[in-house]
Amino acid sequence: MFNFDDKDLIQMLSLGTDSEVELNAMKEKKVEFRKHFGQLLSKSRKNAKSNECFYCGEKCSSFCNSHSIPAFFLRNIAHQGFVYNNHKLINMPLLDDDIGVNKTGTFQLICRECDSKIFSDYENPDNYEGTPTSKMIAQIAMKNYLKSISKRKLEIEIFNNMMDSTEQPFENIEQKQIINNLDLQEYIEGLNRAKRVEKKGWDNEYYLFYYQKLDYVVPIAFQSTVVLLTDFEGNIINNIYNYSPEYQMKSVHICVFPLESSSVIMMFVDSKEKRYRSFYKQFRKLSHEDKLAAINFIIFSYSEDVFIHKKINEEVLKHQGLVDVSRKSLELITTNPNIDVNPLLIGKENVNFDKMHEIPNLLSKEFKVR
Ligand SMILES: [Zn+2]
C-alpha cells in the first residue's frame, strides 16, 4: 500500500542530517512522507487501541489524553504555549520541531477517572516545597511505565504494518520486534509493582539517590526512564546486546521539573535493583556542577523525550557536540543491533561520561530561564 520505500521511511525517521542536498530532498518529500506516515500511524494506532483502561481494567470508550510530563511544568518553559522537542536538535525537517504544551508527549491508555486520581499527588505544584513523598515517587514511576507501554504498543503495531506492506526481508525489524515485546513485558511488570507500592503507601520501595532543588528555572523539562549502559568508570550497567529473555534491562528514573521560580531534579531506582549501585556511589562523589552536567549528558545522549525552552539561544541548539550526542541517542535506539558488537565498546564510544563537559550543560545557572 505504500509507494514509499519503507526502508527510506525508517531511515528518515531515525536520523537527522546536515547535508544541504539531503535537507532539501527531504523537504520536498515532506508532503508525501507525511501522508504515508500519517496513514501508517493511524492504522497502527487503531491496531494498538484497547477497549479497556490499562490501569483499572474497566471498559472504556474514550481514553484520557494523559501527559507524560505534567503540563504545568512545561508551561514554565513554554513561549506562547509552545516548547521545542529534540527534533530541533537533530534537524529532522520531516517532523515538527515545536509542539503545543497541550499536545506534548501525550498518550491514551487509561480512562479519565484514573488519570484524574492516580497522579494527583505528583501533579500538584504545591507538593514541591520539600522532598517528594514515597507516594509521589511511585506515581512518577507509574506514569513512566504507562508512557513506555503506550510507546512500545504503538511501535510494535507500526512494525507489524510495515512488515505486512512489503515483500522485502526485514530482519532488523523482526529482531527489533523481539526486543520490543520483551521491553513491553518489563514495563508491565514495572507498572504493576509501582501500582502496588502506590496503593499500599509503602516507603523505601524506590531509592531516591538524588534530589536537588535549584533556585532558578532550568530551560528543559524531562520525565522518563533511561537504560544506562555504563557507569562513570566505563563498567557495564546494562548489556543491550544480551537478548536472553531472562536478562532484563534495568532503568533509572530521571526527572527535571521546572517550577515557577525554581527547579526540582531527581533520580531514583527500584530499591530491589542492585545494578545501579556503582553508578550512584560514583555519582554521589561528584561535585554539584558535575552532577548536573552528568544528568544533562544522560538526558541528551540517551533519550529523545526532552522538552526545551523556546526562547533558548539558538546557538546553543546548534552546538555540534550537543547535536552529535542527540543523534547518537537515536542511533542507539534505532540501528540494527549487531550481536557481535562488544557492548563495552558501544557504551564507551557513544555514552562515555568523559564527554559530559563537551556539551553545554543546560542545567547550569548560565542557561536559566529566570
Ligand atoms: Zn481506569
Description of the structure:
The protein has helices at residues 6-14, 20-48, 71-75, 87-90, 112-118, 134-164, 171-200, 277-284, 288-302, 314-318, 320-334, 343-351, and strands at 66-67, 82-84, 98-100, 106-107, 206-214, 220-226, 252-258, 263-270, 307-308. It has 370 residues and is α+β, with helices and mostly antiparallel strands. It has one domain (6-367). The strands form three sheets. It has a five-stranded antiparallel sheet, with helices on both faces. It is globular. The relative contact order is 0.14. The site of zinc ion has 8 residues, from helix 5. Zinc ion (ZN) is lined by residues 53, 55-56, 58, 110-111, 113-114. It comes from Neobacillus kokaensis. This is HNH endonuclease.
Put the structure in a nutshell.
This protein is an alpha+beta fold. The chain is built from twelve helices and nine strands.
Per-chain topology:
Layout: H1 6-14, H2 20-48, E1 66-67, H3 71-75, E2 82-84, H4 87-90, E3 98-100, E4 106-107, H5 112-118, H6 134-164, H7 171-200, E5 206-214, E6 220-226, E7 252-258, E8 263-270, H8 277-284, H9 288-302, E9 307-308, H10 314-318, H11 320-334, H12 343-351
Antiparallel strand pairs: 1-4, 2-3, 5-8, 6-7, 6-9, 7-8
Helix pairs in contact: 2-6, 6-7, 9-11
The structure holds zinc ion (ZN).
Protein name: HNH endonuclease
